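EI: anyone free to look at a 120-residue chain?
SC: sure, send it
EI:
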Amino acid sequence: MRLLASLSMTLHAVGDEIALADLVTVEAVRVLRPALYDMLVQLSDSIFAASAGAQVNGGPGSNADERPIRKLRELEPVLAENICRWLFPAARRYIDNYHYGEEWEGLWRRDRKVASQRVF
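SC: here you go
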């Protein structure tokens, strides 16, 4: 019930600025897993494509203990990885060694995906 009430208010406030599926998912995380949501906000500089350049061979994040999403995984390992894979695909560089370049930002922005730093 809490999620539905919150979603209704958020949807009214945000309108069509965010893709509906992303909005529902982010709001569910915010309401049902607030610590995980807070950590996502804290890590926002590390989970977007624009920050990918800092995470190259041997750079910060190459060691599992240095990866920014380590804190997310400590909270809820499976859920954190799924959120990164589906909502913040640029963060997959920490999980799957799968990289998205900055050119993806424009596509995600156009599609109103929270994977875009500007949309999030």
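EI: The radius of gyration is 14 Å.
SC: 👍
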